[in-house]
């Protein structure tokens, strides 16, 4: 501990006393933080430059170690995530029971309800997209009107104890599906339920494998509904991955490959 103004001096002492240094600080990056830029200096007014000190040490990547620590969640971590999920799920259910005329109103309601139901804040900027806006990945303008007869997609979640949840749901603005909307919804829902059932350690599936299963299921279901699934139609209709790891971040443990079999204690999303 000490005064933040003395950070360079403190780091010099700590690095000097260490045989190994774990860091991913990249001072050469154009977007390097002020902290990372400390490691670029070869000289200093009050000590050897940190870069000079690091040259004499065994420097190892910190990312892989943090990835391993964050990859498997403890019971306490999962408890926080479950609380975030339950509070967020209730907010979605309450939102679906009401009529909405504008994306911004639904956005404000969800963010309010996340907190009102016990979350600390929103996990990320919500996506609330009516009609054709839902075809834009990560649409966050949330400033359009909601039209009777359209569907509205909401991708949002709350954060509790620094742990997040990520929920995506689609429902009719009017409160009632048209027959084509219901058929499409049920086709995607069936795929999602199948994929969720495969997210078990004893099934030895990876996220990539489950994604492939989702692709096959959707392609078959959409063809039965009359979609032309030739060429790159599936890629156009399903242009993103089925899921990702979650935890402290929305896209947690970026160093964890989606090719690896799922393990007990990992947390993932399933969103076809």
Task: Fill in the keyword field for this structure.
9 helices; 272 residues; 8 strands; three-stranded antiparallel β-sheet; alpha+beta
What does this molecule look like?
- The protein is built from nine helices and eight strands.
- The protein has 272 residues and is of the alpha+beta class.
- Strands 3-6-7 form a three-stranded antiparallel beta sheet. Strands 4-5-8 form a three-stranded antiparallel beta sheet, covered by helices on one side.
- The relative contact order is 0.11.
- The model has no long low-confidence stretch (mean pLDDT 91).
Cα radius of gyration in angstroms: 23 Å
Morphology = globular
- Uncertain runs are none
Overall mean confidence score, pLDDT: 91
The N- to C-terminal Cα distance equals 47 Å
Broad structural category: alpha+beta
* Main β-sheet description: 3 strands, antiparallel
The largest sheet has its strands arranged as: 3-6-7
Strand content: 5-15%
Order of helices and strands: HEHHEHHHEEEEEEHHH
Q: What percentage of residues falls in helices of 4 or more residues?
A: 25-40%
Q: Number of helix segments?
A: 9
Query: What is the number of strand segments?
Result: 8
